[in-house]
Write a sequence for this structure.
DNA sequence: CTTGACCTTGACGCTGGGTCAACCCTCCAT
DNA sequence: ATGGAGGGTTGACCCAGCGTCAAGGTCAAG
C-alpha cells in the first residue's frame, strides 16, 4: 500500500493535486489507515496516471472524468478528438514561433505584407524615414477600419508608383516633413500633382474606382491627419479647380474662383 | 481614430481584453472623445498586436509589460528565452501525443517498459490473464515504492524464466488463481519451488543479491498480498526448512522442525 | 523524548479574462 | 421628437487548476 506522497511522486503530480482530484470526485477516496492516512492500491496508480495523461493533453478535468467513466468506443472517439486538438495546438505554436521571430526582427506585424512591401518600395525611392512612419501609421488606421479593401488599395498605389512624376512627388517628402505655409516647394508639389491629375483625367481613370464614398472620405481624412503639408497643397489645387485626393474631381469651369 | 471595438477586432482580441489591459496598465488609456468613448491611434494598434504576439506565446502579461518597456537587447534576450520555451512546449505536446496513443491502445502506462515486457513473456508462457493482472498490480506497487530498482529486479526475473522448472511453476498459475488450503497441487508447486531453491543454493546464488533487507521485505509482502496461494506454498516450504521468497535462506538443520 | 518528515483539513490567491448588469451615447427611420 | 438598434461605459462576480500558507496530528529514527 502507498501513501499519498508515494502515489503522487510516482505519477508525477503533487500531493495537492491528488487531494484536489479527490475533492472533485475524479479519483475515488481510498481507505484510510487507523491514523487517518489515505492508503492507495495499484488501481489508484493506474487511474491517476490516466488522469495525468489526459490532463497533460490539455483536457479539462470534467471531461477527463467523462472519458474515464465512459465505454471504450466513446473513449477512443474522445482520444481521437483530443489528438486532433493537440495537432492543431502544435501547429499554432509553430505559427506563434514564426510571428515571434518576425517581431524580434523588428517587423511590423500590424500591417499586411502588401502594405509592408509598399512602404519598402517608398523607402527604396529615398523617401525619408520620418515620412514613412507617418504613412505607416496612416495605413494602420485604414487597415484597421477596412481590412478587406487594403490589398486592392495598395495595388492601386503600386500602379501609381510606376509613374515617374509620382516618384518625383514622393521624393519631396524626403527629409523633414514639416511643411509650413509659404514654403515655395509647396507650389512645386502642387504642380506635379496637377500634372498627375490631368494625366489621370485624360486616361479616363477619374471616378473609375470601386470604392464607396465613405471609404474615400476615410482615406482622405486619414491622409490629411497624418501629412501636415497635404492641407496646404490641397488648398493650392483647390484654387486651380481640383477637388479630392483619393478620388479626383474637376470642378466645372463656370464655378472656378477667379485666379 | 478607432473605437475600442475596431481596435479589438483588428488585433484579434475581445473588447473586454483591451479594457483588461488598460486596467493592469499594459496598454495606456487613450484619449476620450466628448462622449467618453476611447479613441485609439496607430501606436495603440502596434502595441496591442505586440502584446498579443507575446501573450499568444504563453508569456504572462506581467512579463509582457517588462519586455515591451525594456531595451532592445533585453527584449531580444527575452524573446530568445520564450522561443526556447515554445520549442520545449512543442516537444512536450509531441510526447503527450505518443503517450495518448499508447493509452488508447490499452497500454499500461503505469509500468516501465521492462515490466511490460516481462508480463508479456509470462502471457506468452500461457499464464492466465487473471494471474497476470495480480502480478501487474504487484509490480505497480513495487515500482511506485522503488522506481530505480525495478529494472534490475526484472532482469533477475527474466533470468529465472530461463529455467524450465520456473516455467513449469508459472504454468500452475494458468487458469484460476483461487488456491485453497488442501489443494493437492500446492504440494506439486512446493516440490518445484524446492528444486529451484536447491539449484539456487548449489549455484551459490543465495544471498548474492544487492538489495537491502527493507526492499526484500517489500517484495515478499507485496507478493504475499497479491498471490493468495503463495502463503500456503510458503507454509509447506517452511516445514521443509526453507525461508524467504525473494531472498532464499536455508534454515540450519538443527533448527528444523520435525517433519 | 525530540526531531524532522509526513499526513490532515481549510481557506485564500493567482491568470486571463468571460459573463452578466445597468446605464449612457449616437445614429437612423419614422 | 421619438424610439430602437447598436455601439460605448463601469462594476462586480465567476471559472479552472491548482500553489501556498496555516495550524495542527502522526510516524520512524536516534
Amino acid at each position: 500500500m502507498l501513501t499519498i506522497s508515494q502515489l503522487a511522486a510516482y505519477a508525477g503530480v503533487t500531493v495537492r493535486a491528488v487531494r484536489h482530484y479527490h475533492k472533485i470526485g475524479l479519483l475515488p477516496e481510498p481507505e484510510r489507515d487507523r491514523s487517518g492516512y489515505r492508503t492507495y492500491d495499484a488501481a489508484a496508480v493506474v487511474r491517476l496516471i490516466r488522469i495525468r495523461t489526459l490532463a497533460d493533453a490539455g483536457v479539462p478535468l470534467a471531461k477527463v472524468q467523462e472519458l474515464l467513466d465512459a465505454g471504450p468506443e466513446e473513449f477512443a472517439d474522445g482520444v481521437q478528438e483530443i489528438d486532433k486538438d493537440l495537432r492543431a495546438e502544435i501547429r499554432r505554436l509553430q505559427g506563434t514561433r514564426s510571428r515571434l521571430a518576425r517581431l524580434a526582427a523588428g517587423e511590423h506585424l500590424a500591417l499586411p505584407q502588401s502594405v509592408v512591401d509598399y512602404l519598402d518600395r517608398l523607402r527604396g525611392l529615398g523617401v525619408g524615414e520620418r515620412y514613412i512612419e507617418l504613412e505607416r501609421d496612416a495605413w494602420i488606421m485604414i487597415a484597421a477600419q477596412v481590412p478587406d479593401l487594403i490589398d486592392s488599395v495598395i495595388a492601386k498605389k503600386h500602379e501609381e508608383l510606376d509613374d515617374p512624376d509620382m516618384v518625383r512627388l514622393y521624393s519631396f517628402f524626403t527629409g523633414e516633413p514639416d511643411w509650413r505655409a509659404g514654403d515655395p516647394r509647396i507650389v512645386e508639389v502642387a504642380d506635379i500633382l496637377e500634372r498627375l491629375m490631368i494625366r489621370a483625367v485624360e486616361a479616363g481613370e477619374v471616378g473609375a474606382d470601386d470604392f464607396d464614398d465613405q471609404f474615400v472620405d476615410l482615406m482622405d481624412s486619414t491622409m490629411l491627419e497624418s501629412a501636415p503639408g497635404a492641407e496646404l497643397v490641397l488648398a493650392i489645387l483647390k484654387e486651380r479647380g481640383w477637388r479630392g485626393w483619393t478620388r479626383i474631381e474637376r470642378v466645372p469651369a463656370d464655378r472656378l474662383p477667379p485666379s
